Amino acid sequence: MNKSRLVAALALLSTPAFAGTPPEGVEFQPRRGFYTDTNIGVFFTVGGQNSYSNAQTYLQLGLGYDLTERISLGAHFGMGASAQNCFAGYLPGSETCALSDNFTMQFLDATASYHLKLMDRVYLTPKLVAGYTRLDPAPVDPDKGDPGRAVSAPNAGVGVGFEYSTGMDHFSVGADVLARFVIGPDITSFAIFPKVKYTF
């Protein structure tokens, strides 16, 4: 009787039901593919007569596609403002800016990002950006026509951030620091923002 019970117990232990899953379960795989992201943070420029501008609100919207688990391409529209930083120089004998020292900056950029895994669900995301910028009103070249005109110029920049794949399917959160240089007006800007990303 004892022998038959031992054989039965060994048979049960050898079945797949007792093989079980690894203690940590199925390995997490981040969702990749078409995505959108929304970013709201702070924006400022550096250089100019005032060295740096006052921090202003920055808004950015984007969409893109993960080509591989590590490489993503996207397109982003961003908008910020430079407040109280003069790039046109002062009028002779005064500290009055020759053009407006308050102007908006609108960016339309292509973005390439690389996802470097730091730990489970957490990625470092260095990136390159390039595109076009609209500055309104023009902050430079006071001798070139209407001071209220807008000007456009190419931009290029670099950034770094981190991204965390949350427990909610489709959603990731993170934060970025992005530096851009507007070629021609020679204006450098920084944007610092948290982000929410939704991957379809």
Topology, please?
Elements: H1 2-13, E1 34-46, E2 56-66, E3 71-83, E4 102-114, E5 116-119, E6 122-124, E7 127-136, E8 151-165, E9 171-182, E10 187-199
Antiparallel strand pairs: 1-2, 1-10, 2-3, 3-4, 4-7, 5-6, 6-8, 7-8, 8-9, 9-10
In short:
This protein is mainly beta and 200 residues long.
Please tell me about this protein's structure.
The chain is mainly β. The protein has one helix and ten strands. It has one helix spanning 2-13; strands spanning 34-46, 56-66, 71-83, 102-114, 116-119, 122-124, 127-136, 151-165, 171-182, 187-199. Strands 1-2-3-4-7-8-9-10 form an eight-stranded antiparallel barrel. The longest helix has 12 residues, at 2-13. The chain is elongated and about 105 Å long. The N and C termini lie far apart (60 Å). Mean pLDDT is 88; it is low at 9-23.
